[in-house]
Amino acid sequence: MIDVSAELRPVCLQLAAQAKDAARQLACVRTDVKDRWLRATADALVDRQADLLQANSHDLEQARADGLSEAMLDRLRLTPARIAAMAEGLRAVAALPDPVGRIIEGGVRPNGLLVQKVGVPLGVILFLYESRPNVTTDAAGLCLKSGNAVILRGGKEAQHTNAHLHALLTQTLAQLGLPAHAVQRVPTTAREAVGILLTLDQYIDLVIPRGGESLIRRVVAEARMPVLKHYRGNCHIYVDAAADLDMAERIIINAKCQRPAVCNAVESLLVHQAIAAGFVPRLARALHERGVEIRGCDLTRSLASGIATATEADYAAEYNDLIVSLKVVENLDEAIVHIERFGSGHTDAIITNDLAAARRFAHMVDSAAVMVNASTRFNDGYELGLGAEIGISTDKFHARGPCGLNELTSYKYIVQGDGQLRS
Amino acid sequence: MIDVSAELRPVCLQLAAQAKDAARQLACVRTDVKDRWLRATADALVDRQADLLQANSHDLEQARADGLSEAMLDRLRLTPARIAAMAEGLRAVAALPDPVGRIIEGGVRPNGLLVQKVGVPLGVILFLYESRPNVTTDAAGLCLKSGNAVILRGGKEAQHTNAHLHALLTQTLAQLGLPAHAVQRVPTTAREAVGILLTLDQYIDLVIPRGGESLIRRVVAEARMPVLKHYRGNCHIYVDAAADLDMAERIIINAKCQRPAVCNAVESLLVHQAIAAGFVPRLARALHERGVEIRGCDLTRSLASGIATATEADYAAEYNDLIVSLKVVENLDEAIVHIERFGSGHTDAIITNDLAAARRFAHMVDSAAVMVNASTRFNDGYELGLGAEIGISTDKFHARGPCGLNELTSYKYIVQGDGQLRS
Q: Confidence class of residue A6 from pLDDT cuts 50, 70 and 90?
């Protein structure tokens, strides 16, 4: 039997050491050079899409032969419109302010020292993802603009597409005199390579796994370096006694139906008992009309027809589909306790016109984003004003919620004096 | 043989679960209640010091019997003056602004959504430390003020002192109606307890190990949750060709001699060749007069007497003592490369009146704090304006440099709308 790890170890070590070296150079590259690379890559993507589409069709053929589902094939598929969107994504990142060198805080101390807290890159980021090829350019663009070197590891099923994208990304790096190892790709599909990379904390500063909860748990268990985690999005909307019911209905429909497969779609609805009799029937009708399956508590089932019985598993579920759980609660505090028990700390909303209730909900619910009279779908890097995002963190350490350019940076203190001594 | 881990596991689980529960309550405690607890604890420390001193003398006796060094005994020892300083530390934390609920950023989005990024506690902090008893009250005060529950695990040699301090801390919690499990202590000196706690990432949000590099490496290897790390402080001062040599001498003496055992003391001096002949002899004289041993490169040895030969190990060393390494460099860039190779990313300084050199050094040196014409000793929470600190991070993730109250918090987004939908 071949010891795969022994063969892969030097490959991984070289990859990581090269990335560290590139990161050191990248940290000092000026914004205009980075932006030029982003725009040149966007142009190259569009200009040379014929080759890219061919590589993609190669992956699609193989995926079809392997019996992947139509949904999986759709994720993997590139089209001219999707390539144009990838290019637009890179141009949007070019238009964002550079997080490196930004002054986060600063001031003069009583002894005259000028203290400035300044944004710096994290260093080397290992990015693990699945089949969508657009993640390759999104991740490379955000990492490079924030001055970080990135090691990309996409899904096996997208390997030809990603190899082509990687060649294109590095070619534009070389044209502009940027370090070629700023964007690298794990050159093997062997699973063991990831295990080895996760131990190389002398080179790799952060891992971002984008995928299912089991992938993330595996990475957390093995990684010696920090992990930016996005576990689950079990988002709630609580309709308070003092809610505007028209608004509540509109927001629920938006949060459930506008894009049901994403992490900030609502999965669970809580309704105050005082308005349940009036609201549940119209809500059920509105949801049923849009093809949403409802699983509810006994009380909701007595108020409207066509509602299945909700189990505890339903209250905990992230459906990512046109299904929603529905429960009547006695009051605001029962809603808060329910969210604490079943929620995932991602996004939770209250619909109310009662100021005290809004304040209490916003204060007590411990989620990355708490919405008052707005759709859960707004927990998104672009919508919250961060520009692009690389993911939404359900963690509390370093970054929480949408992670944009700033969240991919650290900082240093630059202290200027004129001979100050410590006494 | 008894399976210690099997016995300890339920104890650790209970401890961690209780902490999580306390953290949930603490997150919503008002600032004035937390400050009252800090002041009441400070008063109790001073008022009831007789019992505390007795517990401490118990530890000291045992430590003497175990043959601990005089330096170790001194670390362990409490005196009325030291107790008064501990009380003052708690009162200083009470006087700092509450990081929980502070608005970090905010604004109105084009669609009218009001977005606020608000400070929240991290949750549960496991704090591992050594023999100094003042760390017990410092850590408890900073964690509680930042709304976090803390699990304390001090050195075995301080166990009676720490048990007494813990009783005092929890008694004042109970008096003010705060959750008793907000400050807990690992109730066993068994080493295995730490190993178990490091796997409980469902309850514990952060570990802070304060101790030697080997302890920290062990914690990083075992912990499932993030670790706030302080590895080493190998701090440099580079004296540029354009330095004010009087200022350089004063700063070097301050950085080396004012408190040589701490992490922000200077350990390595780099001198530009253009000024070496004039500066090295006077610097050597000034250092020797203060009892500092110098280990230098061949060129420095030819310029002054009494300088031993520096090895690579010397350039890498954190002496924490009255020893310093000294090297002549060709230019600024050689100094930067040397710091990159041997430094620890903690604190590095340049002494110069050349603006371009100062800018390049501050930009290129990747350390938590870069000083221009100031002593390395200023990398400290109080000196940089953070108030108190729980340690200095040599990490780049979450917090870098001094960690005060803000660095013990995360944030959430609170988004207020009037019915906005995502389109």
A: confident
Q: Which residue has the higher pLDDT, B348 or B214?
A: B348
Name the nearest CA neighbour of A128 among A229, A234, A7. A229
Q: Tell me the C-alpha to C-alpha distance, in Å, between residue A258 and each of A237, A247, B422.
A: 15, 16, 8
Minimum distance, in Å, between the CA of residue A370 and any CA atom of chain B:
5
A262 touches chain B (CB under 8 A): no
Task: Decide: A307 and A284 in contact? Cβ < 8 Å.
Answer: yes
Residues B212 and B254 in one domain: no
Q: What whole-number distance in Å separates Cα of residue A330 and Cα of residue A271?
A: 9
Taking only the tens place, the pLDDT of each residue in B268-298 is 999 999 999 999 999 999 999 999 999 999 9
Q: Is B262 on the interface with A (CB under 8 A)?
A: no
Per DSSP, A98 falls in state P
Q: What interface predicted TM-score (ipTM) does this complex get?
A: 0.94
Give A-chain residues touching B363 at CB under 8 angstroms: 28
Assign residue B247 a region (left: φ > 0; alpha: ψ between -120 and 50; beta: otherwise): alpha
Instruction: Provide the domain count of chain B.
Output: 2
Interface residue B382 vs chain A (CB under 8 A): no
When pLDDT is cut at 50, 70 and 90, the band that residue A2 belongs to is low
Q: Which domain CATH number covers A126? A: 3.40.605.10
B396 in a structural domain: no
Query: Within this chain, do residues B35 and B151 fall inside the same structural domain, yes or no?
Result: yes
Q: What is the CATH number of the domain that holds A310?
A: 3.40.309.10
- Residue B393 within any structural domain of the chain: no
Nearest CA in chain B to A218: B224
In this structure, the answer to whether residues B175 and B323 fall within a common structural domain is no
Min CA distance, A407 vs chain B (Å)?
9
Tell me which residue range forms the domain holding A331: 235-383
Q: What angle do CA A93, A168, A383 make, to 5 degrees?
A: 20
- The residue among B415, B416, B423 with the most chain A CBs within 10 A of its CB, best to mutate, is B415
Interstrand relation of B114-121 and B409-420 (parallel, antiparallel or unpaired): antiparallel
A112 and A176, same domain (yes or no): yes
Please state the rounded mean pLDDT for residues B79-107. Answer: 96
